[in-house]
Amino acid sequence: MIYIFGSLLIISFIKQKDVLLGKKRNLVLFLILSVFGIALGVVHMISPYIPSIAYTLEKYLK
Amino acid sequence: MNEQLSMRQIVFMYLFISLSPVLRQIPTALAGEAGRSGYLSPFWSIFLILPLVSVILLLMRSFPGLNLYEIMVHLAGKVFAKFIIILYILWIVLFLSAKINIYSLTLQFTLMPKTRSDFFMQIMLILVYYALLRGSKTIFRFSEFSLGPILLLIGILFVCAVSRLRTDYLLPVSTINLPSTIKASKNVIAVGGNIIIALFFADKLGISLTKKQVRKFWFGALAFIIFSFIITIFTFGISGASLTAKLPFPFYITVKSISFFNIFERFEVVVTLICILSDFITICIMFMILMKLIQWLLALKERGFLFLPLAIIIYYLSYFVSSTQFEFDYLYKTVIVNINLIFQYIIPLLLGLICLLKRKYIKKQY
To answer: Which chain B residues in 210-269 lie under 8 Å from chain A, judged by CB atoms?
Structure first.
């Protein structure tokens, strides 16, 4: 799925290049959010059974 | 496309997005915390939902034609407003991740247990993207047109189920149960607080609030409370509080036992469909609010390019938030309900208080 998302991000970038390149703030925000999303995807791909937030809370709050 | 909204659309949207938590989470939570008397809890929520409605109306009347961010800037300055916006962004991200998670879990629990959850999530995100392309008006219109038939259908189900209601599942209730029903009412309050969506779209409501609009807004809050009461009494009366407390989707199981004069049955598929539609609209509206919040925070002129990166973040976060129904139930009970109370009640009430304190100054301005 991460490859599909990556391709979609590139397509989205090309489609919206006028908006993104027109203002530095738009480009930086798009890049930060994309990198964060892809990083989450990489973590999920590497260890798909990582304990969830709910599990961690349940473990430490009880 | 004209992007102006009506109060009726906001109220219908509020009721529409409240459908799935009312059908799915509220009966379980009330039965778990207040037992047999849990169906009385929706009435206690009046004491918090109605003041919230009056605070929202106060803010909208004091700052006509302004949205939540602009109201906060006027009341407490830009720095405070931006700080609160950051908190709202975090809340919406968590809310959206949990919503997508429970949507896929619901589909797995009810109709397609063998299908992987990522498939449901991907389909949902594609549909949300398509809906957002059409604009906010389309989403509001969809909820406006769909709510009537859905409520009619639930009404028919209720009529069919009246003969199956067992009074021994509902009575006796004594004064000893009242404290637990008051405590459990926070589950209803946490859903009823969704009415604050009106503040996010207040700038699209026009310059002045008419008496008719105000009446519709009050009606929306009252309709939510009555609807929660009916669904809870319906679920408790047929399935019993002890069974309801243990089920992830008790209304679904309740409807399984209903038939229309022994001719039509298996209405549970329709209940799943209602929940999915409500989840879909909730995800659309929350995505819209999330993008609006980022736009306000960074003073952006365009926000369309935000959808895809945000969708990717939400998609993967939904795996990290919870992975099973039990985990989701725990997260909902301990985190989501309490966080909802902060963002839906405490912050707007704080704004209302500042608004009252600064009333004279505000009146001079407008």
So the answer is: none
| Extended strands (E) in B64-124 | none
Mutate to test the interface with A, among B305, B313, B324 (most CBs of A within 10 A): B305
Report how far residue B143's alpha carbon sits from residue B277's, in angstroms, rounded to the nearest whole number.
9
pLDDT per position as a tens digit, B54-98? 999 998 888 888 889 999 998 888 899 999 999 999 999 999 999
- Whether this model's pTM surpasses 0.80: yes
Rounded to the nearest angstrom, the minimum Cα separation between A23 and chain B is 9
Q: Which residue intervals of B299-346 are DSSP H helices?
A: 307-321, 325-331, 337-341
Query: Are the Cβ atoms of A54 and B319 closer than 8 angstroms?
Result: no
The alpha carbons of chain B give a radius of gyration, in whole angstroms, of 20
User: Could you say which of A16, A20, A54 has the minimum Cβ distance to residue B327?
Assistant: A54
> For B248-267, how does the pLDDT look when each residue is reduced to its tens digit (9 = 90+)?
888 888 888 777 766 677 77
E-strand spans in B14-162?
A: none
Cβ–Cβ of A30/B313 closer than 8 Å?
no
The yes-or-no verdict on residue B366 having pLDDT over 70 is no
Domain range list for chain B: 7-365
Q: Is there a contact between A44 and B319 if contact means CB atoms under 8 Å apart? A: yes
Find, among B24, B19, B17, the residue nearest to B244 by Cα. B24
Asked if B335 is an interface residue toward chain A (Cβ–Cβ < 8 A), one would say: yes
Mean pLDDT over each residue of chain B, to the nearest integer: 87
Considering only alpha carbons, which residue of chain A is nearest residue B335?
A54
Tens digits of residue pLDDT in B187-214: 999 999 999 999 998 888 877 778 888 8
Pick the range with the lowest mean pLDDT from A14-18, B248-252, B358-362: B358-362
Q: Is the peptide bond before B172 cis (omega within 30 degrees of 0)?
A: yes
Tokens of residue B177, six digits = 């149960």
Beta-carbon contacts of residue B236 (< 8 Å; ≥ 6 apart): B27, B31, B36, B38, B39, B169, B170, B244
Cβ-based contacts of A28 with chain B (< 8 Å): none
The C-alpha angle with vertex B121 and arms to B24 and B104, in degrees rounded to 5, equals 25
Q: For residue B168, which phi and psi values (nearest 5 degrees)?
A: -70, -15
Chain B residues within 8 A of A12 when measuring between CB atoms: 305, 308
Beta bridge partners of B259: B265
Best mutation site among B291, B315, B316 for testing chain A: the one with the most A CBs within 10 Å?
B316
CATH second-level architecture of B7-365? Answer: Up-down Bundle (1.20)
The token pair at B58 is 């106060």
